[in-house]
Hints:
Blueprint (H helix, E strand, L loop, with lengths): L3 E5 L4 H12 L4 E5 L4 H11 L6 E4 L2 E4 L3 H8 L4
Parallel strand pairs: 1-2
Antiparallel strand pairs: 1-3, 3-4
Amino acid sequence: xxxxxxxxxxxxxxxxxxxxxxxxxxxxxxxxxxxxxxxxxxxxxxxxxxxxxxxxxxxxxxxxxxxxxxxxxxxxxxx
Length: 79
């Protein structure tokens, strides 16, 4: 089972689109709101050196932005 964590904010349209894409492909997503979770925000920045969202952690691999090709590769999604 793939572990997918989505670091996002409630007002980010790219985050919502990414979450919908993952769910439509059958993946359970753990949403993490970095606007209200300072610890998660620190983790995201520490791992990626990025302060922008969306950021995904897929089985320990970090993806910044909606990098469809990389996400499909990591989750074995035919695109």
